[in-house]
Automatic annotation (TrEMBL):
Native source organism of the sequence: Bariatricus massiliensis
Domain of life: Bacteria
Protein name (database record): Uncharacterized protein
Length: 818
């Protein structure tokens, strides 16, 4: 038989029972997606305001938001916090909430709920009923990706006045990559350009994690070698400067206040600020500043422009059109060797953010064991400890793995001296002989020595003979003079970051105590620890950057910190340079969230069978709108979802003949090999036939309690047809009936509703001539709009029995009249 009319009624199991009902409709999806790489939201509530509209029912009848006696108020709740008042950007007019800002951006839990409280006071009875409803919005976020690399290792070779090497015969540099792969080690040539580190017998490859450097390698210019490690990300690299420190007849040493400086540029190469891009030459003899007795000239490399101060000591960079450059300071004086120092400049573009990764590493209580003329080591032993750190977190955790410790007599060939027999987090080791040049420790993954995680080398230094003349000049060697700080696309630090700056003081070529005072720091950067160097150990200054710190402002991309070193009675000022690495505009995203929904831009109501309703789909992948590969539209009818023939486009036009009072539609779209389904409903307000659904227990029950009847009233052209014989639904027969009276007998045990008629003597089941003329089939949908009862008819009749056992959180009862 043909379906004359259809409608549905939904009953929800909630905590409070009331005849006043309210549910909320949203103009935008209940989830928004934030892309930290582009700092955008989809959808953006600022661009397209979110509107949340209450829909009210009183005794199952629609109630206007502006009806007399209606009072509507709104609250907000972040995550599981207590509810509070609306804030700026959240306004209410006519009972409708409008949100004009991306409020989810400031909610740490990424869950924001809006609570609607409705009070209705009946003007006739002065009775007040209450109802409330909640709509929650969640924020999904695409992944950040952080690419980073740093270099650890020594940075000075020591010579006596006769030109003999007295300190380390070899330095080992170790690169520590995060989410990148090392592609090549390079050195800076005399013309300022970088090229691959020359092949030597000391380095089997120049693309591994370690690089061995000897004074004989052809990479030094003016006693300085600038070494750089490149990665598979062109914007991620690190540099280190190696210096040959010589003791001479005059014990003269030259130092720059800023050996290297990094300048931030946008993608077109325009430098945002030249603040801090300056360096000053200072020359010391036996602890005294004698710079004024020398004639100083500066020579910038191609692509570098700037100005020299009137006293010729300082050069300030004002322009840079190349990625790498330098400024040579040359100082001459009769009777003295010429002194040349190189101020290295690097132009850096914004890097990308990275996803969290676990990094394993070794730490030692000393990087150098010094051996005196009596072959006594100071300190006498070294302790290796292993740790791991997740992502960019400042916190570290002890790690128990396996250690392999080796010794070398020439800094090149190594002999194994110790291998762990069980997992351990630390190992104390004493040199086995006096003639060794280095100790190397390799950390392996727990359980064996197959997977190497990190390597740390401890060098052996020896006391050399005293210089031929002079007490020796004062020098300060700084192990870290610049650092890149990973930041969000908004210019704020992604996480708490420690900056470790090792340093040592020398008098001639002999280590002496040295301390450092820290100048003004940008907002969010503080001193975590400051330990001076001694005759036996390097000093360490640790600066820490707080998570979310702007370092002055979001637009400030770089800066410097003055470090004032005091060594042997002499003060030396050096500048530490920091640079932000912001998320690139087109940074690599993680796996995007996919959001699919059906909208009806012109509304979902058909009036008097005179108009169509357009159902349109939209899908977001991340913050971008995407097009699925296929669409399948279905309509719910007779207990199941049936495909609509020929409807495979992104839109569906619903005509009046497709809706019998109330109809449900779904669309399943395929994108990226996965299926996504959305639902929508269409109402025909004035169909030829219309059926009204009424529940005697209301639309809400509490904790599964309660029972009642759902009954149906059928209208044709606005006039009721096939009318009910009675609206009395009772568990016991009425007293004092009259002949021909009717009532519906409710049997809670059998869960039935039966029409009864009084024949003048007794109540009996109504005869066929008194029963409804039309057929009423009731189907059920669960809380996810999926068919129950195998899609078959649940019950038949104009009045049906229901109780709390029929409702699991939410149940929709669909009636079809034939």
């Amino acid at each position: 038989m043909a379906i004359k009319a259809s409608n549905q009624i939904t009953i929800i199991d909630i905590d409070d029972v009331g005849r006043l009902g309210v549910y909320l409709t949203s103009s935008l999806p209940l989830s928004a997606i934030y892309d930290p790489n582009t700092d955008t939201y989809a959808p953006s509530w600022a661009a397209t305001n979110l509107k949340v509209t209450p829909v009210l029912y009183l005794n199952d009848k629609a109630l206007s938001l502006t009806a007399p006696g209606v009072s509507i108020s709104w609250k907000r709740r972040e995550g599981a916090d207590s509810e509070g008042n609306l804030t700026a950007g959240e306004s209410v007019a006519g009972g409708i909430l409008t949100v004009s800002q991306n409020k989810l951006s400031t909610v740490s839990s990424r869950l924001l709920s809006y609570l609607c409280y409705v009070t209705y006071t009946d003007p006739d009875t002065d009775v007040t009923v209450n109802a409330q409803s909640v709509l929650s919005y969640s924020l999904l976020q695409n992944a950040n990706e952080l690419h980073y690399i740093s270099i650890d290792g020594g940075n000075v070779f020591l010579y006596d006045s006769a030109g003999n090497l007295t300190g380390d015969s070899q330095l080992t540099l170790t690169a520590n990559p995060v989410n990148v792969t090392i592609s090549q080690w390079q050195y800076r040539k005399a013309d300022g350009a970088f090229e691959a580190y020359p092949a030597t017998s000391d380095n089997a490859t120049v693309s591994g994690n370690t690089l061995h450097i000897k004074p004989s390698h052809a990479v030094f210019f003016h006693d300085t070698a600038v070494i750089r490690v490149l990665t598979d990300d062109v914007d991620v690299y690190d540099t280190v400067t190696i210096t040959k420190l010589r003791d001479g007849a005059h014990a003269v040493a030259g130092a720059l206040t800023n050996d290297a400086h990094t300048l931030y540029a946008n993608s077109s190469g325009t430098v945002s600020s030249y603040a801090g891009a300056a360096s000053t030459l200072a020359i010391y003899e036996n602890g005294s500043d004698i710079t004024n007795t020398f004639t100083v000239t500066t020579t910038p490399s191609s692509g570098i422009t700037g100005t020299q101060s009137s006293d010729k000591k300082t050069y300030t960079v004002t322009g840079m059109t190349v990625d790498n450059g330098y400024v040579d300071f040359t100082a001459v004086r009769s009777g003295y060797a010429s002194i040349t120092k190189c101020f290295v400049l690097t132009r850096v573009k914004a890097g990308t953010n990275g996803a969290a990764a676990r990094t394993y590493f070794i730490e030692t209580d000393t990087l150098v064991l010094n051996k005196n003329v009596n072959n006594v080591f100071t300190p006498s032993k070294v302790t290796f400890q292993s740790f791991y750190r997740d992502g960019t977190s400042a916190a570290r955790s002890a790690y128990s793995g396996r250690f392999k410790i080796e010794e070398s007599t020439d800094g090149s060939a190594y002999t194994v001296k110790y291998i762990s027999t069980a997992n351990e987090a630390s190992k104390e080791y004493t040199p086995s002989a006096a003639n060794i040049a280095a100790i190397r420790c390799t950390l392996y993954a727990a359980g064996g020595t197959t997977t190497a995680l990190d390597t740390q080398t401890v060098l052996i230094t020896s006391d050399g003979r005293t210089g031929a003349a002079g007490a020796g000049g004062s020098s300060v060697i700084v192990g870290n003079e610049s650092q890149v700080i990973p930041c969000s696309s908004a210019g704020n630090a992604l996480s708490a970051t420690d900056i470790v700056i090792p340093f040592a003081g020398y008098k001639g070529t002999v280590k002496v105590p040295c301390s450092v005072a820290v100048g003004a720091l940008p907002t969010g950067m503080t001193v975590k620890s400051n330990t001076g160097s001694t005759t036996a150990a390097d000093g360490s200054l640790v600066l820490t950057v707080a998570s979310g710190a702007s370092l002055g402002s979001a637009d400030t991309m770089s800066g410097t910190v003055d470090l004032t070193f005091t060594c042997n009675g002499t003060t030396v000022v050096k500048k530490f340079t920091w640079t932000k690495s912001k998320a690139a505009v087109n940074g690599t995203n993680g796996v995007n969230a996919v959001l699919f929904q059906i909208t009806s831009p012109a509304g979902n109501i058909i009036f008097n069978s005179s108009n169509n309703v357009s159902l349109e789909t939209v899908m977001y992948s991340g913050t971008s709108t995407v097009t699925p590969s296929s669409f399948v539209w279905k309509k719910y009818a007779s207990g199941s979802w049936a495909s609509i023939s020929g409807q495979t486009a992104s839109k569906l036009t619903v005509t009046p003949d497709m809706v019998d009072g109330y109809a449900s539609f779904s669309c399943t779209a395929v994108y990226g090999g996965k299926s996504y389904t959305a639902y929508a409903t269409v109402i025909d307000k004035q169909d030829n036939y219309a059926v009204e659904c009424i529940s005697t227990m209301g639309l809400q029950i509490k904790n599964g309690q309660g029972y009642g009847v759902i009954y149906y009233r059928l209208f044709q052209g606005g006039t009721e047809v096939d009318a009910l014989k009675s609206t009395n639904f009772l568990t016991a027969a009425p007293a004092n009936p009259a002949n021909g009276d009717f009532y519906y007998a409710v049997n809670r045990t059998a869960k039935t509703v039966t029409l009864k008629k009084y024949n003048g003597t007794t109540w009996a089941d109504a005869a066929a001539s008194d029963l409804p003329k039309e057929t009423y089939h009731t189907y059920r949908l669960d809380k996810n709009s999926l068919p129950l009862d195998g899609g078959e008819v649940w019950k038949t009749g104009k009045a049906i029995y229901i109780d709390g056992s029929d409702i699991d959180e939410k149940c929709t009862f669909v009636v079809e009249v034939e």
